[in-house]
Design a protein that fits this description.
With 231 residues, the protein is mainly α. It is 61% helix and 0% strand. The longest helix has 27 residues.
């Protein structure tokens, strides 16, 4: 590990910038299609983030479309059982049972607090109060909280889950002895607020690509040669 995490991260991001292209004015839609399950974009982002968390864009997109086609609205999703939601999201969704239970807990907590599934009032709150509000929602991980802060409220945050953390530890950008929260704090301190969205875009797309490459290699290795195949 470099003595200065900012130097190590800066060098890594420079490499990613060359690979994925640096963009001015990155939009939230660069990090997931601009589709809605609910008019309130904050609640919508929470659901999207919970589908990407410890998963992938491809899994999230498929689950998102299944939810949108199979359910009338998020209120119908809110009253699903865990097994029903697991079935809707698809059998290949990583951590499907935990994800379903977390998502149901999140939506029901919001409904109990607000008597609706809208959180637009968070836009009127300062970062400390928003953090306190979101951190009090049972089942909502820091990754999803950070995506809401960054993509919906324009606040300084770097979304990080175990999926990205392990990859960054493998690149010696993060220290494996630290907790996920400590690692996220390291990233936030190392990145200027104005660069946080571009930083997350690069890290997420790198994480998504490296996952696809790894999966592709595993599939190739596990595919047995066909005996007697014609040339």
């Amino acid at each position: 590990m470099s003595a200065d995490p900012a130097d190590k991260l800066g060098a890594f991001l420079k490499k990613l910038g060359k690979k994925f292209g640096e963009q001015g004015g990155v939009r939230a839609t660069d990090l997931f299609p601009d589709e809605r399950l609910i008019a309130d974009s904050i609640t919508n982002e929470i659901v999207v983030s919970m589908l990407i968390w410890e998963s992938s864009f491809s899994h999230a997109a498929k689950a998102f479309e299944r939810i949108r086609s199979d359910l009338v609205d998020l209120n119908e999703l809110r009253v699903c059982t865990g097994d029903e939601l697991m079935s809707i999201m698809g059998t290949r969704m990583p951590r499907s049972s935990e994800r379903a239970l977390r998502l149901l807990s999140i939506l029901n907590t919001v409904y109990e607090r607000e008597n609706m599934l809208e959180l637009a009032h968070l836009r009127e709150m300062n970062k400390r109060d928003v953090l306190a509000y979101l951190s009090g929602i049972d089942g909502l991980p820091q990754y999803a909280i950070a995506r809401v802060l960054l993509l919906e409220l324009g606040l300084h945050a770097i979304p990080l889950d175990e999926r990205l953390s392990k990859k960054l530890v493998g690149e010696s950008v993060l220290d494996s002895s630290q907790t996920l929260e400590q690692q996220a704090s390291v990233l936030e301190r190392a990145v200027r607020a104005n660069d946080s969205l571009e930083t997350y875009r690069l890290l997420e797309h790198w994480g998504q690509e490296s996952r696809t490459v790894t999966k592709s290699r595993k599939s190739t290795k596990s595919t047995p040669a066909t005996k007697g195949a014609s040339s």
